[in-house]
Amino acid sequence: MKPYHWLILLLSVALIIVSVRLVYVLSEKENASDGTDSEAALECIMTRASVRDYLDKAVPDTIIEKILRAGMAAPTARNRQPWEFIVITDQTLKDSISDSFEYATMVGKSAFDVVVCGNRDLWGDNDTHEVGNWVLDCSAATENMLLAAHALGLGGVWCGVYPNPERISKLSGLMRLPENLVPLNIVSFGYPAAEVTPKQKWDPAKVRYNPGQD
Amino acid sequence: MKPYHWLILLLSVALIIVSVRLVYVLSEKENASDGTDSEAALECIMTRASVRDYLDKAVPDTIIEKILRAGMAAPTARNRQPWEFIVITDQTLKDSISDSFEYATMVGKSAFDVVVCGNRDLWGDNDTHEVGNWVLDCSAATENMLLAAHALGLGGVWCGVYPNPERISKLSGLMRLPENLVPLNIVSFGYPAAEVTPKQKWDPAKVRYNPGQD
Fold first, then answer.
1. Is residue A129 one of the residues assigned to a domain?
2. Given CB 3.0 to 4.6 Å as the disulfide criterion, which of A116, A130, A178, B128 pairs with A124?
3. For residue range A97-147, what is the model confidence (pLDDT) as tens digits?
4. Any CB–CB contact under 8 A between A176 and chain B?
5. B208–A77: do the CB atoms touch at under 8 Å?
6. Which of A4, A84, A93 has its CB closest to that of B213?
């Protein structure tokens, strides 16, 4: 064999090896999409933790809207979507909430807050006990927002207002809420100042199977 | 140039093209991990829909546990975790629930169901209005389970029980629940029989900004 034969052989072998590797990587990428997606969504749920300290860093409006959209994607009884979300970015308002609620001082330092409200006009029929569903629906929406924030690299914390009548009337007054809105909570959001470890809450003793079947 | 010169040139060019493509794909794969993860978790929230028709296909215990773990990862007021999850797989019990609740006939055909209960022993102090928090906490846990199921390729639907007193007492009797447990809902799960399109619920008119600041 002449030298250029060796060169052609070498180049051909290299081309085959690199091509095979490329096909392998591409097919792996394709296959990973399902598994990785379900893992990523589960991991988001399992690694969420309440974040109370934030960096002094603004959150873009596009990110805020993503979080609000996640909230409104929650399921609601009879599809009533009985909510209204109040976004707070004004520092004066944030400070007055922080000063008035000793358990919610993080509102003063957060990037933005969402007060999740039930809207009485959308609560449904009192006779069929539908009215109480707004609390369930708005709680599911709140959890969606906390998860979306975590997915986007932010953190948040749920500061309870309802069902404490004092907190409800104080916050309603402070924000001059119309009569038809009842605040469920104040949810603070921002980029976490430090990594927060999620609590280990799994407790198999809190699971029962097929009761009453003896 | 002789013919073999052309061959060497052609092979060299092909090798360079394939190598560049490989490096590009590999670096893309590396960079994608962050972006893709947050997209996957958000997409899980945005594409979840209530699933009422299921395939006749069992769900492995490992998958059921993943869903229950997601439920217990929800935030709770003062970290009370005031819940208990009742898993129903027994067909006789499923049929009697399905027969007794005309709005929950999917229980008879689902792979399994979870009755999310509040545990009065863990509700906290009545004087500080803590008692009402179990509804919020258990609703957040329910949403986590619905999202986890969707991430795992299953579907589910939240059938309301609380705060309807008739439904509460009927279900408590049927399942012979102890006095300290109050059922919030029956959540049915299974592999979806058909693709379900999520409702479009985003409504910017339900968002307000910085109220009371004029």
1. yes
2. A130
3. 999 999 999 999 999 999 999 999 999 877 778 889 999 999 999 999 999
4. yes
5. no
6. A93
pTM (two decimals): 0.85
- Rounded CA gap, B34 and A91, in Å? 31
B3 φ/ψ angles, rounded to the nearest 5 degrees: -55, -40
DSSP B24: H
B30, part of any domain = yes
Nearest-by-Cβ selection for B74 from A14, A36, A143: A143
**Sign of the CA dihedral B188, B110, B114, A157?**
negative
Tokens 């470890």 locate to: A197
Residue B142 tokens read as 């329910």
Q: Cβ separation of B164 and A212 shorter than 8 Å?
A: no
- The helix (H) or strand (E) run that includes residue A10 is helix A3-47
Same structural domain, B74 and B151: yes
Kindly list the residues from chain B whose CB atom is less than 8 angstroms away from the CB atom of residue A197. Answer: none
The neighbouring-strand residues paired with B134 are none
Are A38 and A84 within one domain? no
Query: Closest Cα of chain B to A205: distance in Å?
Result: 9
Mutation target vs B (from A152, A210, A213, A214; most B CBs, 10 A cutoff): A210
Number of domains forming the structure of chain A: 2
Whole-complex ipTM:
0.85
Q: How far apart are CA B166 and CA B97, in angstroms?
A: 14
Q: Which residue of A has its CA nearest to B51?
A: A75
Is A202 in contact with B48 (Cβ distance < 8 A)? no
Mark whether B43 and B74 lie in a shared domain: no
Q: B41 and A41: CB-CB below 8 Å?
A: yes
Say how far apart CA B92 and CA B85 lie, in whole Å: 19
CB pairs under 8 A between A and B: 261
Q: What angle do CA A154, A155, A156 make, to 5 degrees?
A: 135
B147-184: per-residue pLDDT in tens?
A: 999 999 999 999 999 999 999 999 999 999 999 999 99
Please tell me what DSSP assigns to residue A111: S
- Asked whether residue B179 is domain-assigned, the answer is yes
Asked if B160 and B185 count as a contact pair (C-beta separation under 8 A), the reply is yes
Q: What is the pLDDT of residues B105-125, one digit of tens each?
A: 999 999 999 999 999 999 987
Q: Is residue B53 part of a domain?
A: no
Q: How far is A106 from chain B (nearest CA, A)?
A: 16
**Bridge-based pairing state of the strands A83-88 and B207-209:** parallel
Of B186, B182, B181, B191, the C-alpha closest to B97 is B186
